[in-house]
Write a structure and sequence with these properties.
This protein is an all-alpha fold and about 240 residues long. It has one domain: Vanadium-containing Chloroperoxidase, domain 1 (Up-down Bundle), CATH 1.20.144. It is globular, with a radius of gyration of 22 Å.
Length: about 240
């Protein structure tokens, strides 16, 4: 039997799709987001008519009205950040993806595996951003399209800080300070309420605790330390 050309094309596409669907999913290296119960970790956001929520609305309006140029610059500085944004102020400008490619790959893997958790929490709680609740507000950063609770920036920064603490425990206070700057930048920049960033911190640190239980993660931490070692020796020389 002869098939028209277009039908052969359709059959070819369908066969390819079936083959793609049959490809086994890649197992997570460090963290199984599907098995993590974020609802057991992050409390409900303040109810819209609660005193806490009213206080946060007033704070957002006050910060919007009194934001300094330095505060706006801080918000924009951390609008996009990665692990090196936290590492360089503490360890030195040599902390770059070019100098530490394996470190960058590891953190990219952490991000891919851990990001779905905060995205699920955002969708589950569905809290509007400050500028959505009050369109008169003018954030110092681009208005995100995602919901507000918990803060993704706070989540990522807190998780990164916890991992860096496991790698370089002698700088534990510095990593927390860097994460706190990221969290504050999101509040002062008008992207989040304080409870958003606190929820992000709680969730990020909880995920990091699970992450650090992984033997593969422990091996990755050793790789990060080994990659950074020559730069520490050069600095000490």
């Amino acid at each position: 039997m002869k098939y028209p050309t277009f039908l052969l094309a359709v059959l070819s596409i369908a066969t390819a799709a079936l083959a793609a669907d049959s490809t086994p999913a890649v197992a997570p290296e460090f963290f199984h987001a599907a098995g993590f119960d974020w609802r057991a970790v992050v409390p409900l956001p303040p109810a819209g008519d609660s005193i806490a929520a009213q206080g946060e609305h007033e704070l957002a309006a006050m910060l919007d009205a009194t934001r300094t140029s330095e505060q706006a610059a801080l918000a924009r500085h951390y609008e996009k950040f990665d692990e090196f944004s936290l590492m360089a102020p503490v360890l030195g400008d040599w902390c770059t993806a070019q100098n530490l490619p394996r470190t960058h790959v590891i953190f990219q893997q952490i991000y891919r595996e851990c990001r779905p958790t905060v995205e699920a929490a955002k969708a589950g709680y569905n809290r509007p951003r400050p500028s959505v609740n009050d369109p008169a507000l003018r954030p110092a950063v681009a208005k995100p399209v995602t919901t507000s609770y918990p803060s993704g920036h706070a989540y990522s920064a807190s998780c990164i800080a916890a991992v860096l603490t496991a790698v370089f425990p002698e700088h534990a206070a510095d990593w927390e300070k860097q994460a706190a700057l990221v969290r504050w930048s999101r509040v002062v920049g008008g992207a989040h309420y304080p409870s958003d960033v606190i929820a992000g911190k709680i969730l990020g640190e909880a995920v990091a605790r699970e992450l650090l239980k992984s033997p593969k993660m422990q091996q990755a931490l050793a790789e990060i330390r080994a990659e950074a070692a020559p730069f520490f020796r050069k600095k000490a020389a």
